[in-house]
Write a structure and sequence with these properties.
- The chain is an alpha+beta fold.
- It has one domain.
- The chain is built from one helix and three strands, in the order βββα.
- Strands 1-2-3 form a three-stranded antiparallel beta sheet, with no helix packed on it.
- It holds the Pfam family PGM_PMM_I.
- GO terms for molecular function: intramolecular phosphotransferase activity; magnesium ion binding.
Length: about 45
């Protein structure tokens, strides 16, 4: 897994993150929502 950071010469609203499962598969909307909810609840293992 990983996170791609997108940024460019365009205005800030076009910058962002893309969450990936592997090099060819990114998370879909439902997975991103679940990840957001886990982060908001602090419901994950800390390294």
């Amino acid at each position: 897994g990983g996170v791609y950071v997108s940024a460019s010469h365009n205005p800030a609203q076009y910058n962002g993150f893309k969450f990936a499962i592997d090099f060819s598969e990114t998370l879909v909307t439902e997975d991103i929502q679940a990840l957001k909810e886990m982060a908001e609840k602090d419901d994950f293992k800390k390294a």
